[in-house]
Specification:
By secondary structure, the chain is an alpha+beta fold. It has helices at about 15-20, 85-115; strands spanning about 30, 45-50, 55-60.
Length: about 120
């Protein structure tokens, strides 16, 4: 559900104070825990260190991000992968096929050089 237009966008006041009067290119990353803060046009070009619960993820704000929340660009969960035994078998077969293809590619140029002599 979106915030009502009557209230306006939520932008953290502390972030605006940290940005005020500074140039984006000369400012080091600005650390913040305000993941719910919306990105305003004044923030474009700045680098924010948005906290994801464990570390600060650096986010370079571009024009396309205006209107989104800072937390959208700092994921809190790390995807490892799905699968288990079946997935490992599939990956092993894929690896073996890549190795055999590489060996075949290596052997083909060697055979060509013998024919040319």
């Amino acid at each position: 559900m979106t915030r009502s237009l009557k209230k306006g966008p939520y932008v953290d006041e502390k972030l605006l104070k940290k940005i005020e009067g500074k140039k984006p290119s000369q400012t080091p990353p600005i650390k913040t825990w305000a993941r719910a803060s919306q990105i305003s046009p004044e923030m474009v070009g700045f680098i924010f260190g948005v906290h994801n619960g464990r570390a600060h993820v650096e986010v370079l704000v571009s024009e396309d991000m205006v209107g989104h929340r800072l937390g959208e660009f700092s994921p809190t969960r790390k995807f490892i992968r799905h699968g288990g035994k079946m997935q490992k078998e599939i990956e092993q077969k894929k690896k073996e096929s890549e190795i055999s293809a590489a060996k075949a590619a290596k052997a083909a140029p060697a055979a060509d050089t013998k024919k040319k002599k």
